[in-house]
Amino acid sequence: MRKLTSAVLAAAMTIVAMQTLASAPAQAAAAQEYVALGDSYASGVGAAPYDSASGACLRSPKSYPKVWASFHPAYSAKDVTCSGATIADVRSKQLSALSSRTTLVSITVGGNDAQFSPVATACLTESESYCEAATMYASYYARNQMVGELAGLYTDIKKRAPGAKVVVLGYPRLLAPTGSCGAISPSAAKRAYMNANADAVAEGTRAAASRAGVTFVDMRPVFAGHEACSAKPAINGVNLARLTETFHPNATGYEYYVYLLAANRT
Questions:
Q1: Domains contained in the chain, CATH given
Q2: pLDDT digits 0-9 by tens, 7-31
Q3: Which end of the chain is more exposed for a tag (fewer CB within 10 A), N or C?
Q4: Which cysteines are joined by disulfide bonds (predicted)?
Q5: Is 248 annotated as catalytic?
Q6: Active site residue 226
Q7: Confidence at residue 266, expressed as pLDDT on a 0 to 100 scale
Q8: Which long-range contacts (CB under 8 A, 24 or more apart) does 128-134 make?
Q9: pLDDT > 90 in the chain, percent
Q10: pTM reported for the whole predicted model
């Protein structure tokens, strides 16, 4: 898949918007409501600066919900994403944004339930064997318990917003097999363990989406060759001054999310 620059993204999104308006005049009078749910990959962590009003949720104007909404002004948008959100947090704190008026829902969640931050910390600071054990534990959860938990959440979303298209955007692989990652560069073995864990989370999310009957978007192909530590990364490497952003998409990475949300919204 061709990688997108900001200019190409803007042109592509403009064309999509024009085609939508031209092909669906009957919908022009109908209210369109977009609700964005999820964790730091949805709120835009990694693409500073952040909206001060969002506090610890760290919502960035460069996040995929914000950018997508800016290209689709016909939609009223509700962004309730929040850094650190778990599956339980989305259910208890974010689902209230949904209603029978909602026509589009995007969601990225599950990474915190699969211990994204502790696993990354372990692989950056501990031994290869410790990293392997941490990723294996997280991967087992992602392929098993997480599937049922996510499927239940997606089903709840459909109940609250019965007329909405629900688009589940997954997580990419995190690290290129070689190259500097910044302040700390994991070994080749650690990178392989972390990417295998990312695969487990992606496949668990895919299985949950299939079980619940919602759309899953696999983000791994579009990020291939642009992981952290690559020559042209779309994911942040290790910056000790901005640890929260480590292994989160940068602004370019969120453009990939925007493009694939647009491509899968109908």
A1: 30-264 (3.40.50.1110)
A2: 555 545 544 444 444 444 444 446 8
A3: N
A4: 57-82, 123-131, 181-229
A5: yes
A6: no
A7: 85
A8: 128/187, 128/189, 128/190, 128/193, 131/186, 131/189, 131/190, 131/193, 131/194, 132/189, 132/193
A9: 88
A10: 0.89
